[in-house]
Amino acid sequence: MIRLSAAAPASIAAQPPYSNILYTLLNKKRIPIFCVRVHTTSLRFSYSPIRAMAHSHTVSVPTNQPQSSSSSQANKQALISLSDKKDLASLGIGLQELGYTIVSTGGTATSLENAGVSVTKVEQLTCFPEMLDGRVKTLHPNIHGGILARRDQKHHMDALSTFDLVVVNLYPFYDKVTSAGGIDFEDGIENIDIGGPAMIRAAAKNHKDVLVVVDSEDYPALLEFLKGNQDDQQFRRKLAWKAFQHVASYDSAVSEWLWKQTAGDKFPPSFTVPLELKSSLRYGENPHQKAAFYVDKSLAEVNAGGIATAIQHHGKEMSYNNYLDADAAWNCVSEFKNPTCVIVKHTNPCGVASRDDILEAYKLAVKADPVSAFGGIVAFNVEVDEALAKELREYRSPTDGETRMFYEIVVAPSYTEEGLEILRGKSKNLRILETKKNEKGKLSLRQVGGGWLAQDSDDLTPEDIQFKVVSEKKPQESELHDAEFAWLCVKHVKSNAIVIAKNNCMLGMGSGQPNRRESLRIAMKKAGDEVKGAALASDAFFPFAWKDAVEEACENGIGVIAEPGGSIRDGDAIDCCNKYGVALLLTSVRHFKH
Ligand SMILES: NC(=O)c1ncn([C@@H]2O[C@H](COP(=O)(O)O)[C@@H](O)[C@H]2O)c1NC=O
């Protein structure tokens, strides 16, 4: 072993990674390396005065580095560090053919070598082995200097071995913390990648000269780009944008997970929602509005079900309004335990029916408001089989008994093969969606000008609520059941909301009126004669009773009323119901939907 002097062979000193090592050793003394033995094919060095960390290492001279056929790629260097090694071999071979020197971390280097690609190990540049069980591998000036050096600054470039390409993907933190059975805290911490994001950010910052790739889908485009002799800053910028976005989403998952570990409030002082483009839409709510649909990639949304993750089996592409309506229909139908059909128009359920026989439920849901149901969204909480699909295809509108019902979308948790085939035959445009039941307990976010409102999703169902009888008339078992059914429906109707229901079927509803009395009148008109003895649910209390909504409902023969109560005139509502012999139930729960 000899002490290295400034007289080290110039031929070796000029070659990366030796230029780096020697630069470090001789000029800048950035790390405490003490001895280097120079062979024709290796440098042997030892470093660190700390006994526990003393090492002796041999660095091989990469004698078999293929030379580029294209002179523009000669002496180019790529840094590759990948947890997900998908398509690594083809990338490595492609880069090697282009004459790139490849520098890699442990597992990545092994995979590349197994694929017959020559690799320089990161340690050869850092003169330091991976330490702290992989917590520190690439966090070293020789790596980050090589990524961040500006080509137009001489003092940046002096004796630095630079990287032209950085390909990194990160520890699979997201997959680990969302895996079945979860992950314990210590494992979660160890799966937070530190060195990877540092390299990605450095390369993305210096994208003018350093290409950065975080997604294996981009390997083919990268190789094509490198094969061409033309630079394209737009390509580089797009990769840099993707790199920062990748790290931002990664960090948002880490921070979301960590916040949960603090047992902190449901509403953190700040948080980031990672969104991924699912599709660009033809237009927004109206044709002059451009639009796109994004899937929420938060940890809270993993396997949470819902319309964003639905599989579309058939039909025209989903539109902006289709998503809103399908969401409303699915949210509503998912809440029912018995086989149920919900038909939605403009986000309001206009038909809801539950029956053991889903065919019957479907027909009753249409019958509730056949005019509105036409062109609506039909949702089921049970599988769509051949018989149901035939009914959907053939059923004629009860308004004229002739026109076949037409729908924009059918949503269900599953379809039989036969059911799907029949629905596909109904229309080439009919969108057929399959999705999973929504999870409860999620945060609901909604945009207003300049901000977002966050709240718990409204998960309360009649089982969670006490229907307190406050009238002299006690409801019969069937009336109580009707009130509960109406209650579950009214929760999904836009305020002011009134629903009239009987025998597991919505008979009429009034939605979105600026006064409750108007909603009541609309609901009663739709229910017609069937209003007699039916249940009425109101999403919020009645501010007035006499000569107002309560009395009007009683006069028209409503059998039972369910409302939250809480008005200073609750006494009037009770007196009014007592006068007309109507049962009045107070729920103490309001279901505004704005
Ligand atoms: N700490 C470091 O210096 C470091 N440098 C690279 N990594 C990560 O290590 C992974 C690759 O490791 P390997 O090549 O040993 O399979 C990559 O996901 C990369 O992001 C690191 N690990 C995590 O922080």
TrEMBL record:
Protein origin, superkingdom: Eukaryota
Designated name of the protein: AICAR transformylase
